[in-house]
Hints:
The chain has 445 residues and is of the alpha/beta class. The protein has helices at residues 2-15, 24-40, 45-59, 70-86, 113-126, 142-155, 168-181, 199-212, 228-239, 258-266, 287-295, 297-307, 313-324, 331-343, 346-352, 356-362, 367-382, 386-390, 397-407, 411-431, 434-444; strands at 101-106, 132-136, 158-160, 186-190, 216-222, 244-248, 270-274, 282-284. Its EC number is 3.6.5.4.
Amino acid sequence: MASALSDKLSRLVKEMRGQARITEANVQDMLREVRMALLEADVALPVVRDFVARVKEKALGQEVVGSLNPGQALVGIVNRELVATMGEGVSDLNLAAQPPVVILMAGLQGSGKTTTTAKLARHLGEKRKKKVLTVSGDVYRPAAIEQLKTVTAQAGAEWFPSTPDQKPLDIARAALDHARRQYVDVLIVDTAGRLAVDEAMMREIRELHAALKPTETLFVVDAMQGQDAVNTAKAFKEALPLTGIVLTKMDGDSRGGAALSVRQVTGAPIKFAGVSEKIDGLEVFDAERHAGRILGMGDIVALVEQVQAGVDMQAAQKLAAKVKSGEGFDLNDFLMQIQQMKKMGGLSELMDKLPAQMQAKAGQVDMDKAERDIRRKEGIICSMTPLERRKPDLIKATRKRRIAAGAGVHVQEVNRLLNEFEQMQGMMKKMKGGGLMKMMKRMGS
Ligand code: GDP
């Protein structure tokens, strides 16, 4: 699916070379592809319609800059709109209130509420140094309370006992009281879910909300739910003032279209993504990375980057200065280099600039394959978190697997890229920047 979209767009792009504007006539085919890609990513139909309409409105009549063609410009618009819809920047938990800050977990049964409660407890305990207490108000599923006890212990947090014969409201009040007396910073309240939305469940959680006055009311939703996520999200939004969303099971093979749907329907920011069953499988949600996942990472980024044609001398200078000053050459710099290569017109055009002798040698190389390689590399780096890019040493087996899954490649390819990066890093250290600007200038001319 991923490559299908960009391949199709590229083909359409070729057909419209020389057209300087995005017009009603040339945009239709491209919008159809975008629409298909979003539907395949499991974005709900009404959300897709709205989205495509917005993209069209932004695109129409837009002048196409420099050596761009309308197709490339449109990909840029789609990407920016995806990021804007899902929320730019990072949206953190609000912990500013007077402790104990209460976090209420809402969502269907099986969405991952209990697991996420423990993941959050760990996150808040380890990263934010908070004293966290969890409590389960799920008196309908006897195993639920025990499950929370077990995972809370794994999280290294405290757990407040409850029993199936109590009323959820009484449990919540008792837990809050205990939290106050024990100087707990954050109380996370796990609630009962049903298999489908029903009135009794909504009434109960509304009552809990009224009694607890939580600072955060997080709606937990399974990313694999696809189209259904919209209806669930609507029902919870109508029942509760949601302050954030946690998308779970993002490690599954869904394209994560639910993110777009749920965000649009609830208007609440997506705060976290669940990426494994394990206690540490929680990440702060990154809209930019997720936009790539929805439309097919490597390819879309590759196309978008072409939007800013020409070598970015400022970026090159910054890199040179960085290397010169002896600062670490990291994966962001590596990515920038790869992207610079592409901006310079791709490998084949670059080859034309080489002396004849070298061209003959290069002729034996499969250019298409080489170009594809570059895009895959970009995809891999774009699947890394900002921290991993800065500190590649952190990338061990589990992270490698996640990155490979995000970029749609085998783990071996991630290894290969990291090896290559290390070689480049070694070279950079030797060069200390001196030769780099010259090299870039020569290539760009
Ligand atoms: P609850 O009924 O909403 O409390 O859901 P649970 O927390 O019991 O989760 C239901 C199932 O989903 C369990 O098997 C969890 O291990 C699993 N699960 C939860 N979050 C994730 C996630 O981010 N990734 C994966 N792969 N599994 C998850």
